[in-house]
Amino acid sequence: MLFLIGLGLGNADDITVKGLKLLQQSSKIYLENYTSILSIGKNELEKVYGRELILADREMVEQNADVILDEAEREDVSFLVVGDPFGATTHSDLLLRAKERNIKTQIVHNASICNAVGCCGLQLYKFGETVSIVFWEIDWQPESFYDKILANKERGLHTLCLLDIKIKEKSVENIIKNRNIYEPERFMTVNVAIEQILEISKRRNCQVITPQTKGVGLARIGADNQLIKYGSLEELKIFNFGPKLHSLVIIGDLHPLEHDLLCNFSS
Amino acid sequence: MLFLIGLGLGNADDITVKGLKLLQQSSKIYLENYTSILSIGKNELEKVYGRELILADREMVEQNADVILDEAEREDVSFLVVGDPFGATTHSDLLLRAKERNIKTQIVHNASICNAVGCCGLQLYKFGETVSIVFWEIDWQPESFYDKILANKERGLHTLCLLDIKIKEKSVENIIKNRNIYEPERFMTVNVAIEQILEISKRRNCQVITPQTKGVGLARIGADNQLIKYGSLEELKIFNFGPKLHSLVIIGDLHPLEHDLLCNFSS
C-alpha cells in the first residue's frame, strides 16, 4: 500500500497523528524534497519520527516512480510531502500510476500554504486564482502570472503568489552535455518577486499594480519563527524576511475586519 | 494563552501531534461546532483525546467571547476548529479580540476542504474564487454566488462551492419573539446545491452552466468513507452522496492529467 502523507508546514510535530501511525508501520519512507521544503532538515525529522528517511528528488520521482510503486505493491510505503499531498502536480501523477497498477493508496491531508495563508488576516474566500512566480533568466522572463494577478484585482480578489524553488536543477549547458552537475539551491525571496512584478508594471506602464499597491510578505509560515509583514510593495521590497520559504500576497479589496487584522503586521 | 487548533477533516487522529500536545496541556478545551462539523461526534473525540470538551455554538462565541478570553488570560485554553482555524471569519474575530487584550495566541494549522479538494484530481492552482451556497427561502433566493462561478468559468477556472450548514439556528419568528427555540440541524446536499444552480440557469436562460456542465460532488472528505463522484450536473443531481458534509466543484477547463484522474471517480 502507498501512503501519501502531508507533513504540514513548519516542524516535525506538524504531522497528524494518523500520518505518524502510518509512517511508523511502513517498510520504507520517502521524503519528497523538490516541490517544497521544511525549515528543519531530514536529520531532525528522522530523530523525531525515529525512522530513516530516503530523500526523493525530482529525477527519482519522475523517472523512477516504478521503483517506489514496485515496493508499494509488496509492502507499506510512505511518501512524505511538505504541506498537503495535492499541492503539486507530480504527486497526482504518482497517484494515477498507482491506480493504474491497482496499488491501494491512502491520503493523509495536512495544512498547505493555500489555507495557512489565512493567518495573515485575509479571508480565504476572497482569494482568486493562485499564481507561481519563477526566477527570470536573461532570455526568459514570463509575464503570464501578472495577468492573473490583474484579473483577480479587477474582481477585488487577493492573489497568493507561490515563489520559485530551485533544488537539484541542472543548467541548460549541463543538460545538453548530459552532465550530472547541479546548480546551487535557490529560493525566491519576497524582494525578488516584487522586483519582477514592478518591472512588468514599468514595462507596461500599468497603473493598477504600482509601488503603492498593498501586499503581505510571508516567511516560514507554520514554523515558530514565522514572519508576516503588511505594507506597500515599495516597503516590502526592501524588508529583510530572513531564511526560506517565502510567499507573497497581492491584496485586492479589503474588508474592514481584514484591515484590522492586517494592522497587527504593519509595524 | 489561547491555542486555536485545527482538527483537519475526518477523524479524531487527523489532529496534528503539536495540536494534541497543546490540547492536553490546556485547562479548558472548547469545540467550535457551527461553522463546520466532523462526521464523528464530541463523545468520540473526548475518548480519543482523553479530555472533556465544551461545545461552543455561535451564540457563545459571538456573544460571550470575553468569557473564553478571560480564561485564556489566566491559563492555557484550546479552541478546536474543524479544518483549519482560518476557514471562517468568526475565528479571525476571536483572534483579533485576543490581540487587543494582549493575550498570547498560537495557531495550529491543519487541512481544510480548500486544499483537501485536490484529492479529486483537480489542480489547486486552477481554482478561482471559492463560493458559499446558502439554503434558499421562499422570499430570499440570493444568486450572487452564481455570478462568481460564471466569472471563474470564463477564465477556465474551477469553483469550489461550500454548502450551507444550519446548526442551532432560530426561525425569524423565534428571533422576534426572543424564544430560545432552535430549528432542526440541516446540511445542504450536493443535490440541493445543483437544483439551486440549475434553477438560476433556467431563470436567466444561461447557456454556460447547464445540466451537461461537468462537476464533482464530494462527501465526507478526509473520513474513511469519503465519496467522490465526477459527472454532469444532471447526473450528480440525482446521485445519493449519503451523510454530511457535502461540497461541490463546478469544473472550468480540464487539463488532460486532471481528466485522467477524474475518470477514477466517474463510474
Automatic annotation (TrEMBL), chains A, B:
Pfam families: TP_methylase. The keyword Secreted does not apply. S-adenosyl-L-methionine binds at residues 9, 84, 87, 112-113, 163, 246. Keywords: Methyltransferase, S-adenosyl-L-methionine, Transferase. Residues 1-178 form the Tetrapyrrole methylase domain. It is an enzyme of class 2 (transferase). Pathway: Protein modification; peptidyl-diphthamide biosynthesis. One of its GO terms (molecular function) is diphthine methyl ester synthase activity. InterPro entries: 4pyrrol_Mease, 4pyrrol_Methylase_sf, 4pyrrole_Mease_sub1, 4pyrrole_Mease_sub2, Dphthn_synthase. GO terms for biological process: methylation; protein histidyl modification to diphthamide. Its EC number is 2.1.1.314. SUPFAM superfamilies: Tetrapyrrole methylase (SSF53790). Belongs to the diphthine synthase family. HAMAP family: Diphthine_synth (MF_01084). PANTHER family: DIPHTHINE METHYL ESTER SYNTHASE, DIPHTHINE SYNTHASE. S-adenosyl-L-methionine-dependent methyltransferase that catalyzes four methylations of the modified target histidine residue in translation elongation factor 2 (EF-2), to form an intermediate called diphthine methyl ester. The four successive methylation reactions represent the second step of diphthamide biosynthesis. This is diphthine methyl ester synthase. It comes from Helobdella robusta (Californian leech). The lineage of its organism: Eukaryota, Metazoa, Spiralia, Lophotrochozoa, Annelida. The gene is 20202924.
